[in-house]
Amino acid sequence: MTAGALPIPLRPAARPFVGGGAALSAGLVAGLVGTVLLVVGGLADPRQAFFSYLIAYTYVLALILGAQAFLLSVHAAGSTWPTAVRRLAEAVAAVLPLAALMSIPIFAGAGHLYPWMHPERIAREEVRAVVLHKRPLMNLTFVVVRAVVYFVYFIAVGSALRRWSLRMDHPTDAGVLAELKRRFRMLGGGALPAFGILATAASWDWLMSLSPTWTSTMFGLYYLSGGFVTALAAIALLAVLARRAGYLAELNTSHLYALGRMLFAFLIFWAYTAYFQYMLSWEANRPPEAEWFWRRSVGGYGAVGLFVAFGAFGLPFLILLTYWIKRRAWGIAAVSIWILASHYFDVHWIVAAARDRPGPFSWMDPAAVLCVGGFSVAFGIWRQRGHLLAPIHDPSFARAMEYQSR
Predict the structure, then answer these.
(1) Local structure of 172: helix, strand or coil
(2) Distance from C-alpha of 279 to C-alpha of 288, rounded to nearest angstrom
(3) What are phi and psi of 171, to 5 degrees?
(4) Under 8 Å between Cβ of 17 and 388
(5) How far apart are CA 166 and CA 94, in angstroms?
(6) What tens digit of pLDDT does each residue of 216-270 get?
(7) Rg (CA), the chain
């Protein structure tokens, strides 16, 4: 250790992550099985296969972007206690390069997904006129160029955060550590505005444009806040698992409580954006907005919408109201798993009604989840193996692990 180097304050957290082998293998197998099933299904019904893939992909992408938003926010705020679980958020955000590659099937299948790809096939004249008016913006070449810009920015920001964080794993002097902390703070605050703008634009390109006559100024915030909630749930679940495996044995009930409070707060925020998006459309009473919600309220889609309202929000809201649940590992783990599962149906509700099916579900939907989710889990574990699960040399780490809250 060099002169002036900081000592490792907590020994259990100094053990590099070497586990996850079973989960990595299971993720690879799930991804391969899901891919095969999607290819087989796509031979019979390519439109359905691409829609199922889009649902699974945009759900996972929102989670990954939510983890990056968490990192940028805590760095910008200079928060101390999140340092204890920061590396877990970095592990989730590290899946971004794979997410960029996994966007390729969406553009390959754009002709099956987006009305703006084939305006001549649109029967309703007023819809076709809107699509033609948007043609300079919504054409495949420009959409792909924008996607490249989005991912270059997201990956560049995420790579810088990860590189600086991993650099802290090697003993160094306090001056270098202080400089890295300064970089974190500057990048966190500086990158957040563009991150929000680009992530919102991506949601418009890939999701809102499924219904070319519908627009909502709150849609990007609604979609991204749902991703932020699922990211918090993933971080909380990983924290419980890492503590149980001994990698973050020093995490205490106050850390769990802090994660539970954040889950509770942003669950309410997500529901707030969903409600006001609906309320504003109701008040405006314009046909495009009314049609968008009507298509998602009839048949099986109405049942999915009710589940999202009462299952994805109502149930975890009531559970997280309870003080003692938020201070117990099993309680945080259980509600996190439920939120991760239930919020898939929120993205499904947004996307599925655009595919003109009498029912909301297809057997290819779980196949797509296996494909996208399986490979994402395997890639995230692979990138994290051999690295610490805690930034033990971060100047804030010792204080973060001593965090207490009632």
Answers:
(1) coil
(2) 14
(3) -55, 130
(4) yes
(5) 12
(6) 889 999 999 999 999 999 999 999 999 999 898 889 999 999 999 999 999 999 9
(7) 22
